Amino acid sequence: MIRIAVPNKGRLADAALELLEQAGYADTTRGDRALQADLGDEVQAVFVRARDIAEFVDDGVVDLGVTGRDLVAEAGRELTELLDLGFGRCRMVLAARDGVTTEMALAGAMRVATSFPRTAARWFAERGAVPSIVPVSGAAEIAPHMGVADVIVDLVGTGSTLRVNGLREVETLFESTAVLVTRADTVADPARGRAIGEIVGALESVLRARDKRYLMANVRRDTLEEVKTILPGISGPTIVEVLDGGEHVAAHAVVDRRDVPRVVASLKRIGAEGILVTRIERLMP
Q1: In what order do the strands lie in the sheet with 80-84?
Q2: What is the DSSP secondary structure assignment for residue 282, as one 8-state letter?
Q3: β-bridge partners, 64
Q4: pLDDT digits (tens, 9 = 90+) for 30-68
Q5: What is the mean pLDDT of the chain?
Q6: Rg (CA), the chain
Q7: The pLDDT of residue 281 is above 90
Q8: pLDDT (tens digit, 9 = 90+) per residue, 153-191?
Q9: What CA–CA distance (Å, rounded) separates 245 from 24?
Q10: How many C-beta atoms lie closer than 10 Å to residue 128's C-beta?
């Protein structure tokens, strides 16, 4: 049995369960208050606070964990990142009122309000500064206005909350997304390593397919050289004979989602017919 720690609520939880289901690990047994669920194929989800997942993985309570890179950094545990899952994208930033610069924050005896005290202390220490860290449990944006701190270190998405509260980003500490983590000795175990490899492969196939589309079109034989230019695909388009054996063949290719409008327009210009674009559930290398 491979156990995966998943956030028990919030956007990370929803996105993690959706990804697992798309990879074939569907949660069909969990009740509203259940702490775990059978995902099938000897895989079990354990639902805990996102902030606790790094500790659960490092302590060996679970084999894998889905949580934010920011929370892994704050936990200070030496974990192995297996996959960047792409969702939950945000930035850890140093923010302050107008007039405060990075140099001022590093040079002065600044007070730093944050719910990520280890992360903040480590970032300042790496730059030779030792500020006074003021731990807060949330709403760090209010701290400079209340005289509690001079600057804050916090997560931001669009930065709109900072602007509403009269703050601006001074420095980006790092980018964060949801990640799949484990312990090095867990994947080193032959049996568990093989099972984890299967899970990682399934999740990767879903992530790889998300920005791709499968495109099919009937094209004239005399335009195949142009088709090869328009539809490079992964290793070139696949050309399939059409049953009637006429002047048309079927071209199949995987294309980037963002390229679909351009590709379709180019195919139409060379007389392609019956163009079909569809989503891909999984894509293996």
Answers
A1: 36-40, 43-48, 2-7, 64-68, 178-182, 80-84
A2: -
A3: 4
A4: 656 678 888 888 899 999 999 999 999 999 999 999 999
A5: 91
A6: 25
A7: yes
A8: 999 988 888 888 899 999 999 999 999 999 988 888 898
A9: 39
A10: 8
Give the DSSP letter string of 202-265. Answer: HHHHHHHHHTEEEEEEEEEGGGHHHHHHH--TTTS-EEEE-TT-SSEEEEEEEEEGGGHHHHHH
Compute the residue count for the chain.
Answer: 285
Q: What's the CA gap between 19 and 34, in Å, rounded?
A: 20
Q: Is 76 left (phi over 0), alpha (psi -120 to 50) or beta?
A: left
Token digits for 181? 């983590």
Helices assigned H by DSSP within the chain: 11-22, 53-58, 69-75, 102-107, 117-125, 160-164, 184-188, 190-210, 224-230, 260-269
- Phi, psi torsion values for 229, nearest 5 degrees: -75, -40
The residue behind tokens 């930035």 is: 91
**What is the distance between the alpha carbons of residues 115 and 263, in angstroms, rounded to a whole number?**
47
Distances (CA, A) of 54 to 1, 164, 183, 201, 255: 19, 32, 10, 22, 36
Query: How high is the pLDDT of residue 33?
Result: 66
- At 105, the pLDDT band (50, 70, 90 cuts) reads confident
SS3 label, residue 129: coil
Structure tokens, 19: 């990804």
63, 182 contact by CB (below 8 A): yes
